[in-house]
Amino acid sequence: MGTGLVLNVSIDGKQVAAVPRGQTYSGSISPGQHVVSVLLVPNQLNLPPTQKRLSVQAGQTYSFTAMWQGNRVLLM
Description:
Elements: E1 6-11, E2 14-20, E3 32-41, E4 50-56, E5 66-69, E6 72-75
Antiparallel strand pairs: 1-2, 1-3, 3-4, 5-6
């Protein structure tokens, strides 16, 4: 990701963080089905948000890394 870019992180459609390059976000989420979305801003390429559906289990830790592949952001 380039300089001055921020990754907006949303859970179930609600923005929970704006993460600058090289930084992390840590938060709690209730068990059940959720959608995690990330969007790079400014979004000069008009890319859609990257989304990942997950089934959260109580007591589990989930970790994702955002990275470029071609002209899209992947959530690994």
